[in-house]
Input
Amino acid sequence: MEPAGHESPRDTAAELRVDRLRFLQLAGAGAAIPTLAGFLAACGDSSSEGGGTAGGFDGSKILYLGLEGEDGKSEATAFRKRHDLRLQSTYVASANDIFAKLKAGQVYDLALLPNPYVQRMIEADLIQPLDLSQIPNQQDLYPNLRKPEWGSKGGDLYVIPIAWGDGPFVYNPKNVTTVPKSAGDILGPSWNKRYVLFDDPAVPFMLFGRLLGFDPPHLTFDQLDQVSAKASQLVKGAVAFANGYEDATDLIARGEADLSFSGAEFMLNLGKEKGLTLDYAFFEESHGGGFADGLAVPKSAKNLAGAHAYINEMISPKVNAAISTTLSTAVTNEKARPLLAPDLAKLYSYEAVESPDSDLKFEDWVAPSNPPEGIASQADWLEAWQKVKAG
Amino acid sequence: MPHGPKLLTALGLAPISIYYALLFVGSIGIFLAYSFYRFEDFDFVPAFQLGNYGDVLGSELYQTLILRTLLLALAVSVVVVTVSYTFVYLINFVFARHRALLYFLVLVSLFSGYLVRIYAWRTLLGAQGVVNEALLTIGLIDRPLRFLLNGWFAVGVALVNFMIPLAVLPLHAAMANVSPKTLEAARDLGAGPVTIFRQVLLPLTRGGIVVAFAFVFIASAADVVTPTLLGGVQAQMVGTAVQAQFGTTFDWPFGAALSFTLMAVVLAVVATFGWTMKAATR
Amino acid sequence: MPRHLGAKLFVAALLVFLFAPVVIVVMFSFNSSAELHLAGLSTRWYQDVFADPEAMQALKHSAIAAAATAVGALALGMSAALALMRVPQRLRPIALGLSALPIAVPGLMIAFGLAVLYRQLNFEQSLGLTISGHVLIALPFVLLTMSSALDRFSFSMLEAGRDLGASAPRLYWSIVLPILRPAIEGAALLAMAVSLDEFLIAFFTAGADTTLPMLIWARVVRGVDPSLNALAALLLIATTALALLAARRTRPRW
Output
């Protein structure tokens, strides 16, 4: 750790004493802390700072914040090599961690956001509008993903979807003989303590809202109460909150649960790795709530050119297909689909993102932030969910 | 030598004092300031108002969470202090020859991968976990015990597991005040185990007990990771709610107010415990 | 009936309980299968870890943080411990008690507090900020170790030295340091162990400079990954070795 790096261990003791004197002097000057922090930071990262210039981004560094597996780490290597780009990724456990880190002032060039989070991020002023002229591949995205409502505000687009799924539930066919049809079936006694959930109101509130004949995500306060009552039953009967799809698969593999209320097709692959055969199906209420993960550029980004170019690369047909293959998710670029293995290409029904009157509407997950009078807001949903959890 | 020039003393203590003032007082202070801020349009607006505290105290939800958290922390602290005290007594007066080794073994687990250790309880307590498989094999149960994992039980067990070294540390230091000769003398005078404990051990080790209780109580009440990984849908604690304020609802001022409310209640419990101990050993 | 049978059983049961999770982690790190039952012995997960650039990067950051924490905490802690010797005996426990505050306050509050503080100061998150926090929570351990060593330090030797005409620097160099050296090294190792295992402060201040516990967190909540056990076992071995060395160097009065 010594700045010069050539002292022998024998000198450490002397070094310490010198340090102590230096500290005393610094303390006198009242500058000990910033100096120490700066000194340590200097030791901590000796690598060069790689901010890109306005035009080119060759030789720069891109800081990614998000889930592991969606940063193109292995899929976009050729592109990075060509432009001498360095990708430095910070992996988080869930989307919740992303906000906490961005709001704490961290500099990132790219953030991975699941659809329910995007509007909140825009309102919290944490991400910036994208310059579509630098993302030509955006033209090739499926129509419903090209300029999705959930990723836009005031005519600006903030997020480019790189992967999506259609929100099935996933179960272990070995232990499940009667596959549930409606989300309401899960509330029956035969399912008690046999399933896992995600710690998020979006899916349960949407499903139960539909089950009760309401029009989620626009729920009145009275409707929200009724939906909460159902959700309460759901939470009471659950085994645990899963911390993501991998965790849900793990809990099923460990025999803790037979079904994951929120699932994704790629859990079947995750299960296979653990020697487990899984299957998936949809609740009759559920076509309408899929997930879409998109890349956004945080307000704090320094390497704007590099970030835009990287997003463009991530949705290029080849890379997009490669990511889809790794994660078993659906592709967002129309031209990527022919590159998929036949099984994977058939796994998802792409009419959902092709047709303007598709019933798969990603924004349905999210209550409005500034709703009209009498309609519950996102904050109301979150508070209701806290109460549901506290029982 | 011990009472040298005052200037040197002051100079020696200055760096650490400044460091503590800037980083410790600074970080806790600014966090406290945030608890009075207003949260508007996802922004933190500097203000001095007690609205956040009013929201915490006026909400049945958070009252319930705080109460549950305190009960769990109390249960964990009582178990940990009792077990650790017994252990420290035994290694000092019964297995004194192996004291160093035994003490070291316990301390080692203080630094042994806190995150993964918590996670390992899934493998131990799960439906197909080590404990259930063992019980099934010896025929004590015919179907896995499901209450072991994903609930208060697992959170309690994991907390007790990593809090024990934390309590052994101050208790061991306090036990140094008790000489084997004192115990012998008391025994020679015909004192029974209960009397020895109340009249000799307790007064001499009271400080250590209070410190151990405080350490364990504070750390368990504020834990986040254990309920997240092992608590299932049941074990909702204040720590998880605070974290939700940071990541999900984005309301940091409210999260700060919730943290300080919990700390105030926790410190009140610790103070009450210290005072009771003092009164009991007078 | 053997002597102290109950007491022996109690101590044995406690040790089994304490080490059960540790044993599980190490056992599964050598499991040849990715499934949740033990199959056979294999070092494949260790090979995975060493071939994983993320893990190696995190290892590097953790090592830097541990070393820097030791240097920082020692510099601050030693000067304080030496100065404390001049503080009247009855005030010392108060000073030591105050210095222990950073480990008495929940880690979550310190972590959030530091994150908010540095955000307010517009400091860019980095490993340097994490180290500043690690120094804060390692200081109590350093101070306690150094104070207890100094308690046993015989000051008459210094006086004798001074009577023989030795200058103050020379006194420190040839008397104080050699005697205190084991305690200094012990304190340094303890500080490194604290830093290596710390998660919350790192999570909220390190930014993109991922440390080992941060990487483990990102992976642990996404379900078990056998190479995680190998990673954890490595961390475990490192911290245990450091604690072991620390204990050998300081030789506290056990």
Observations:
- Chain B touches chain C through 81 residues (CB under 8 Å).
- The radius of gyration of chain B is 23 Å.
- The CA atoms of residues 118 and 158 of chain B lie 6 Å apart.
- Chain B has a mean pLDDT of 89.
